[in-house]
């Protein structure tokens, strides 16, 4: 048996016709279809075999659709006019009119009483009484509750279909990610290499005149060496790519998670499935979406920005951006679990993310943050991500120097006392190379923490609603 509750509501005539024809096709194959419907068009009304009309919670008519025409004409003296939709006529006859509530209520009650004295009512009553009585053993379950894995699998496929069958949504996401990857690649464009310039002595430095006259690097003291634009551009591109690998997923979670909550509250309250299983299925599909989109983004942007040219470094960059996206999505859902007011969520969550960026070393060196509040960095995925990716970038890089407009590597930089090590470059942001392994582990734990808090708050509020 198939129950359909107002399947044609809020759809146009063409789609309503398609829905009713589908139900009719199902009924022809032997399935009983029980459908509630309001004001169907005449060509749709003809598809129904039996008709149950209700008014004020009582039965006005129940029987074959074709017999209803004569019943209203001869039993109720309310014949349907020619070339008039019978469904509209039946609804008009049994409706309570606002201008005459008392009178129409009395008429409708009369129609219900007449049905109880009709031959159709007697036939239905005799048929029901003739049905064999079935003894139900309430001590035994009438159905088996699906297992945990079955629920997760079913809900996973439902969510997967929702995410990957909407061609318009897939196109918008793909174009958005590709556009930003190309934009950042164009801004920070440089040829990918394993060699980078550390210290730089500009041509206006007085020592450049001495070198031009034949002086050796060991004979010259450079007055104003500084880290080159190479370092600034590379670190800037890393920070920009970190931010772009989290913002879209954070925003989508803030907007999308309240819709999940509304659906889960309805379905779980009606016993269709359990909240933990639905949450796990949603999380798995979300991880898959972020995995695909982050791969596209990192593959385009990493090589265009000219970061360290190595397969291991690229895969590390992608893996960290992937976990970064998971963290951002979890944090957005965590924010959204407090309230379903999207505008309120956005205003509060945006402020939180800005603070997380500050404590992540994006705007200020971590060494300059007061000790009393520096511990807040451990709640920022920007902190872990920025330090990991800078270590990934500079650890194996060959770092040279630029003297008076010319690039040098190796002994020349040593002679000029312009050796910029990876530790020195990392130190400008307050980072340490030996924090790499710790940060990877803590980044994963941070993702699990935000996701766990998201589930805990959602589950607590769901229990309160119940």
List the uncertain runs.
Answer: none
Q: Find the count of extended strands (DSSP E, 2+ residues).
A: 8
Arithmetic mean pLDDT: 85
Number of helices: 18
Q: How far apart are the first and last residues' alpha carbons, in Å?
A: 29 Å
Could you tell me the strand content as a percent range? Answer: 5-15%
Structural class: alpha/beta
Strand neighbour order, sheet with most strands: 6-5-7-8
| H-E order | EHEHEEHHHHHHEHEHHHHHHEEHHH
* Relative helix content: 55-70%
What's this entry about, in short?
The protein has 466 residues and is of the alpha/beta class.
Give the topology, please.
Blueprint: E1 2-5, H1 13-28, E2 33-36, H2 42-45, E3 50-55, E4 58-64, H3 65-75, H4 86-94, H5 101-116, H6 119-130, H7 148-164, H8 167-187, E5 195-201, H9 207-212, E6 226-227, H10 229-244, H11 247-269, H12 275-304, H13 311-336, H14 342-358, H15 381-394, E7 398-403, E8 406-408, H16 411-415, H17 422-427, H18 436-465
Parallel strand pairs: 1-2, 5-7
Antiparallel strand pairs: 3-4, 5-6, 7-8
Helix pairs in contact: 7-12, 8-12, 10-15, 11-13, 12-13, 13-15, 13-18, 15-18
């Amino acid at each position: 048996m198939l129950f359909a509750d107002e399947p044609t509501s809020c759809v146009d005539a063409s789609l309503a016709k398609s829905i009713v024809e589908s139900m009719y096709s199902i009924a022809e194959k032997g399935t009983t279809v029980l459908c509630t419907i309001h004001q169907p068009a005449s060509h749709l009304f003809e598809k129904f075999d039996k008709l149950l009309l209700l008014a004020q919670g009582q039965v006005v008519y129940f029987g074959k659709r074709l017999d209803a025409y004569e019943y209203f004409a001869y039993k109720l003296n309310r014949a349907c006019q020619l070339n008039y939709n019978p469904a509209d006529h039946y609804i008009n006859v049994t409706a309570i009119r606002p201008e005459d509530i008392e009178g129409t209520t009395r008429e409708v009650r009369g129609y219900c009483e007449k049905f109880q004295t009709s031959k159709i009512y007697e036939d239905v009553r005799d048929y029901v009484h003739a049905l064999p009585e079935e003894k139900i053993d309430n001590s035994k379950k009438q159905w088996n509750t699906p297992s945990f894995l079955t629920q997760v699998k079913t809900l996973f496929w439902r969510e997967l279909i929702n995410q990957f069958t909407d061609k318009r949504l897939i196109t918008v996401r793909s174009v958005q990610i590709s556009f930003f990857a190309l934009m950042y690649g164009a801004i920070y464009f440089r040829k990918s290499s394993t060699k980078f310039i550390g210290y730089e002595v500009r041509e206006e430095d007085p020592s450049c005149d001495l070198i031009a006259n034949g002086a050796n690097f060991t004979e010259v003291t450079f007055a104003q060496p500084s880290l080159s634009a190479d370092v600034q551009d590379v670190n800037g591109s890393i920070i920009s790519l970190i931010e772009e690998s989290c913002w879209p997923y954070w925003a989508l979670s803030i907007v999308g998670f309240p819709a999940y909550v509304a659906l889960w509250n309805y379905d779980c309250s009606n016993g269709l499935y359990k909240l933990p299983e639905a949450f796990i299925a949603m999380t798995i599909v979300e991880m898959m979406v972020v995995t695909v989109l982050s791969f596209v983004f990192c593959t385009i942007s990493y090589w265009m920005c000219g970061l360290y040219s190595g397969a291991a470094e690229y895969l590390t960059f992608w893996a960290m951006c992937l976990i970064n996206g998971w963290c951002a999505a979890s944090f957005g859902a965590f924010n959204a679990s407090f309230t379903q007011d999207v505008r309120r969520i956005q205003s509060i969550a945006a402020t939180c993310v800005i603070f997380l960026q500050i404590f992540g070393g994006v705007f200020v060196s971590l060494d300059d943050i007061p000790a009393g509040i520096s511990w807040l960095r451990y709640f920022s995925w920007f902190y872990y991500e920025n330090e990991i990716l800078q270590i990934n970038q500079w650890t194996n890089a060959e770092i040279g120097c630029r003297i008076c407009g010319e690039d040098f590597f190796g002994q020349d930089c040593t002679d000029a006392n312009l050796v910029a090590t990876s530790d020195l470059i990392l130190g400008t942001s307050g980072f340490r190379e030996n924090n790499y392994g710790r940060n990877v582990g803590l980044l994963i734990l941070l993702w699990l923490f935000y996701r766990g808090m998201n589930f805990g708050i959602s589950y607590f509020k769901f229990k309160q609603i119940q």
